[in-house]
Write a structure and sequence with these properties.
- There is one protein chain.
- By secondary structure, this protein is mostly helical.
- The chain is built from 14 helices and 4 strands.
- The protein has helices spanning 2-14, 16-40, 47-73, 80-96, 101-125, 130-149, 161-168, 176-194, 196-206, 208-213, 218-244, 255-265, 277-296, 301-326, and strands at 154-155, 170-171, 174-175, 246-247.
- The strands form 2 sheets. Strands 1-4 form a two-stranded antiparallel sheet. A two-stranded antiparallel ribbon has the order 2-3.
- Strand 2 and strand 3 (174-175) form a beta hairpin.
- It starts with a helix and ends with a helix.
- This is Inner-membrane translocator.
- One of its GO terms (cellular component) is plasma membrane.
- It is a multi-pass membrane protein.
- One of its GO terms (molecular function) is transmembrane transporter activity.
Length: 327
């Protein structure tokens, strides 16, 4: 058993150099893209556009943190966008009904955790396929959001300034959603690299059977990761609610694809065992910059989905090819 554990550790640590190369490559691409956009799109380097772009991709970035952990685990979570919407709607309805803003937030986050716990339990206890399970939760959570709102946006009315500042405030000129994103990235990246508990996610994703034989409670790790993914999705929903002041059941539509795209572009493998939080952030930033360029160039919004799909497909092809070479 110790030998199996050693092999898993050796494999994960050997990939550190690969992570660094992948991440530096993305940084270089982003740097070149920024230079080109600055030259050909005069409005790109304005403070307003940079701030709007960063705030816009912050929610996808927060969700991508959880998605990266799920992919490293060897799973997938298609319910993140819907859980984001459910959290957004529940908190919004409670606030509009006169509930305390922060109590409403806690209830909405708790519901998000429950959703993640249900997904994790179905996967671990009944051995359901993660794709089907999270696809089902995607429909269920989004359906509940639509039922609660009857498909219409819910205005919050007058709420506390402290909650308003969560999504609309700034610290030293940096928007709060961007600060929250970077804090979460720093914390979870540190935990993934240094915490024994979070390192188990890599071990399970690399070789589930060997991880089990080495004494790791595989089901507990899986449940933990899916709950974290739902929790982060719920947080994204709350920040979005604070930012716009309206609860909308359509919030987070397509967020799962953007999160997967960002994580895979950043080096996460669909086969599990590989990926970093910083890499996912860089992937989200790259996709966000491309979409921002299309907007500034007055390209139809429909092209954004097309480009995101092409980028995701390219990243998956590269991932499959790289995995095949390592085999």
């Amino acid at each position: 058993m110790m030998e199996n554990s050693h092999k898993i550790k050796k494999k994960s640590y050997d990939l550190k150099k690969l992570f660094a190369i992948r991440e530096m490559s993305i940084v270089l691409i982003i740097f070149i893209l920024i230079i080109l956009m600055s030259i050909f799109i005069p409005d790109f380097m304005t403070a307003s556009n940079i701030s709007t772009t960063l705030v816009g991709l912050s929610m996808d970035g927060i969700i991508a943190v959880g998605m990266t952990m799920v992919l490293v685990l060897g799973g997938i979570d298609l319910s993140v966008g819907s859980v984001m919407a459910l959290s957004n709607v529940i908190a919004g309805i409670l606030m509009s009904s006169g509930f305390n803003a922060w109590l409403s937030v806690l209830i909405a986050i708790f519901v998000s955790i429950i959703a993640g716990g249900v997904v994790g339990a179905l996967i671990t206890k009944i051995n359901l396929n993660p794709f089907i399970t999270t696809l089902s939760m995607m429909s269920i959570a989004r359906g509940i959001a639509y039922v609660f709102t009857e498909g219409s946006p819910v205005s919050l009315g007058t709420i506390s300034k402290s909650f308003d500042s969560l999504g609309q405030g700034q610290i030293f000129g940096i928007p709060n959603p961007v600060i929250i994103l970077f804090v979460l990235v720093i914390v979870f990246d540190y935990l993934m690299r240094n915490s024994a508990t979070f390192r188990q996610i890599y071990y399970v994703g690399s070789n589930e059977k060997a991880a089990y034989l080495s004494g790791i409670n595989v089901n507990k790790v899986k449940l933990f990761v899916y709950i974290l993914s739902a929790l982060l999705s719920g947080i994204a929903g709350i920040i979005t609610l604070s930012r716009f002041g309206v609860a909308t059941p359509t919030v987070g539509t397509g967020a799962e694809l953007r999160a997967i795209a960002g994580a895979v572009i950043g080096g996460a493998s669909l086969s599990g065992g590989v990926g970093t939080i910083w890499g996912a952030l860089l992937g989200i930033l790259l996709v966000g910059l491309v979409n921002n360029a299309l907007i500034l160039l007055n390209v139809s919004v429909y092209w954004q989905s097309l480009v995101t799909g092409i980028v995701l497909l390219s990243a998956v092809v590269i991932d499959v090819y790289a995995h095949a070479k390592k085999q």
